[in-house]
Specification:
CATH architecture of the largest domain: 3-Layer(aba) Sandwich
Bound molecules: iron/sulfur cluster
CATH topology of the largest domain: Rossmann fold
Number of domains: 2
CATH class of the largest domain: Alpha Beta
Strand order of the largest sheet: 2-1-3-4
Shape: globular
Helix content: 40-55%
Largest sheet: 4 strands, parallel
Distance between the termini: 52 Å
Length: about 350
């Protein structure tokens, strides 16, 4: 059995944030995958040496992510995806203004066709060659299957913690798993079980990524009597791949990987993008959600363009929160209070 942890051999990291980049594939090439959640502390304001400054027209999440990873000496390379213009622009800026190798992975926006699946698999092959150029090794089938199985088990384990933890702690656990492929034991993580009051109002989140410091938002909602019953942001369980098909994993591991990631994760950039609406409507109905919080970043056209469709599709109230990378302001706190008051 091979271990996911290849840190001792190759301590530098191949860093990405998109959920469509499979860490298993990078680990199978002998490198260290690191799905990074931006800290949200480095958006380019006041730092002239950063690849992305505030004038670059890149959303606050992406500018923080790029500036953090390119200034981190542990970064071996960065992978961005073509899922939005801002990431494409980010890849250009990394190539122009930093020495960190950057791979732009083409994620087809059309999904559900054999041609699109084949394109994604071709991109995996291209990513594999990029890993080799960084000093990685060939992804031997036996090694790949072993890593897929290990990730699959750990992923189910971390997802099973949702009911035990507060939404903020659960998001931090998902973050830890994204970075390491591992699950902390409760003692190491310093976690405590969250037992929401029976009066708590079930609320769901949908939207783009959240920075680590924006996880405080969950606590603000909890303080106003909410129980966050699903996290459909890019930092939550919505952006997790489906379970691997264990019956076919040995015979065709790359196809199984494609199905679990590309064919299963719902997102707004996809055409058609009905899958993400179906996902949300199912969660709202099954968990008896009384209100939904919509998370988007300033400059993020992808999520902003879908706001009205989400509002239309829902049978419960929606609160739109626009994040600018800074600390939460008083106005947002007041809006959250008023929203929760209205749901009671
Ligand atoms: S938040 Fe929006 S603009 Fe920023 S990287 Fe994600 S999809 Fe792109």
């Amino acid at each position: 059995m091979f271990s996911v942890n290849t840190r001792l051999d190759t301590p530098k990291r191949v860093v990405f944030t998109s959920p469509f980049v499979p860490p298993e594939w990078i680990a199978a090439h002998g490198l260290v995958p690191w799905r990074k959640t931006s800290d949200g502390c480095h958006n380019g304001s006041g730092s002239s040496g950063a690849p992305v400054n505030v004038e670059a027209g890149v959303c606050s999440y992406m500018s923080s992510f790029i500036n953090e990873v390119t200034s981190d000496p542990r970064t071996l390379a960065v992978i961005l995806t073509t899922t939005c213009d801002q990431m494409r622009r980010g890849a250009d800026l990394i190539r122009l203004r930093s020495r960190v190798p950057c791979f732009l992975m083409n994620i087809p926006s059309t999904c559900g066709t054999p041609q699109a699946d084949a394109l994604y698999q071709q991109e995996l092959e291209r990513l594999g060659k990029f890993c080799l150029s960084l000093g990685g090794k060939r992804a031997e089938p036996e090694r790949l299957v072993s890593i897929l199985l290990e990730y699959d088990i750990n992923r189910r384990m971390v997802l099973s913690r949702q009911k035990e933890l507060s939404a903020g702690d659960f998001a931090r656990e998902l973050q830890f798993f994204g970075e390491s492929g591992k699950v902390r034991n409760e003692h190491d993580a310093g976690l405590s079980c969250a037992r929401p009051s029976t009066e708590a109002v079930p609320v769901g989140f949908i939207g783009g990524p959240m920075t680590a410091r924006q996880f405080d938002l969950f606590d603000v909602f909890a303080d106003h009597g909410a129980e966050i019953v699903f996290n459909g942001t890019e930092s939550g369980e919505r952006a997790f791949p489906s379970r691997f098909d264990l019956r076919r994993i040995t015979a065709e591991p790359e196809r199984v990987l494609t199905e679990a990631y590309f064919s299963a994760i719902p997102d707004v950039f996809q055409r058609p993008n009905d899958r993400i609406f179906s996902w949300m409507e199912k969660e709202v109905a099954e968990r008896r959600v009384r209100g939904v919080v919509f998370i988007r970043h300033v400059w993020c056209d992808k999520w902003h363009a879908e706001l009205f469709r989400f509002r239309d599709a829902l049978k419960v109230p929606l609160l739109d929160i626009e994040l600018d990378g800074g600390r939460m302001n008083e106005r947002t706190r007041n809006r959250i209070g008023a929203f929760m008051e209205g749901l009671r």
